[in-house]
Design goal:
30% of the residues lie in helices and 30% in strands. It is of the alpha+beta class.
Amino acid sequence: MSAKNRYSDIMLFDAVRKSLGSFLSSDEILLDWFKPKASVAHALANHLYRSLGIEESDSLWVDVGVHGADIMVHDRSGKQILGIIFSFTYLSSNQQEQLLLLEQGGCRMTLGLAFLPQKEYILTYRSKKGRLDYYHYVKPSGEMNKLKEKEVRTGIDAGQLTLGIKRGR
């Protein structure tokens, strides 16, 4: 399979889905550790590397904590294939904005993962052309189900506060 087809959006998304399944089957215990961010990032990056089937000739790496992402698949020369930001709660507005910034900066696919305790799913965010798509990765079945899409305001007005002041007397 050519490198272009192997790293298409569909293949990347499927590789993330597979890597979540293998992570949960062998490393889910890490989610219970105290401050597990680095351990989870490392383990998930290893599963992602295997799921992507990266070959030495591809000149791609799966690195942790670079370019504003928790996990980045890239060539270390500026080409960013996949950026992942994750949290152990819902992604904050800053983290969601970082997903958009990674995409605007040229990252081919950006995903957010919320490992929510006591839930039977991992909430997955995908930044795509000015919107966020929300998915549930269902832990028992390994299925990825789309929930909804949300348009995201960007630019100058995104930081504006709106007050609930009613006009008129």
